[in-house]
Amino acid sequence: MLTRENAKTVVKSTIKSSITEFAAKSLKKKAKFQILDLIIPKERKIRSIVGGLETSLGTTLWEPLAKALARENGFTVVESNLQSPANMPSNLNNALQSIIDDRKRGNGLYDAKISHDEIKRVCQHFINRPIETFEAPPRGKGVDIWLSKDGIDYFFDIKTVQPNLPTLTGCMEQVLYWYAYFYSKYPTGSATARIVFPYNPNSGKSFWQGVIGGGRPLEADNEAWVENQFWDFCSGLENAYEIITTSFTDLRASGELESSIDLLLNTHD
């Protein structure tokens, strides 16, 4: 069983390695010359690294961190991607579109649970008539993190903590397509899919109070997890996000990550 102390060791190691590896890759790229390179070359390089981190934090840090904690907590991390039918059967496609249209309009026929159950119901048809050909999912509909434990498959995608309405709509569709992909191939299986917002950026209010429309049409809790809902699940610990924030502050206080970055910067002068 993962302890808080062991979890902190995993978190600090993952943060340091992920950011250091990203910085090393960033510095290897041939940057275009700017006049500020003649005055503050080191600061320019740091700005480039930080800017890149800000836009790729999901794949650079959050995903490796979630997988590392989940492994320590007894999950199997599936490294392959969830495949989609090469040709989506018409009955499944029609069901998906009906659900998506209803959810977008807010008509109230389908919520998260009913949507999941209807997709799985339609896919029972494939028990006796299995789909023969599967392929990589369309761009943008892949799974970032696939975990498995106790006969249940879990699918996650980590998103920006400041989503707009098109993003929220796309997230809702993504969850539904994951269920369609999974149950069309494994109609007797069991799946749970969630969009993940890794932390709450809002001071003094909940994440959903700070999101346009309360997050709809994406359904809080049943289709999306925020902060500790996800980190507690991965680690099996309570208030696991506090371990992450403490690890960040510890690394800053110790200066070890800063030293690693400085060494890289000096190497690439």
TrEMBL record:
Taxonomic source organism: Thiothrix caldifontis
Catalytic activity, as annotated: Endonucleolytic cleavage of DNA to give specific double-stranded fragments with terminal 5'-phosphates
Gene Ontology molecular function: DNA binding; type II site-specific deoxyribonuclease activity
Catalytic activity, EC: 3.1.21.4
Source species, domain of life: Bacteria
Keywords from the named record: Endonuclease, Hydrolase, Nuclease, Restriction system
Keyword DNA repair: no
GO biological process annotation, one example: DNA restriction-modification system
UniProt-recorded name of the protein: type II site-specific deoxyribonuclease
Top EC category: hydrolase
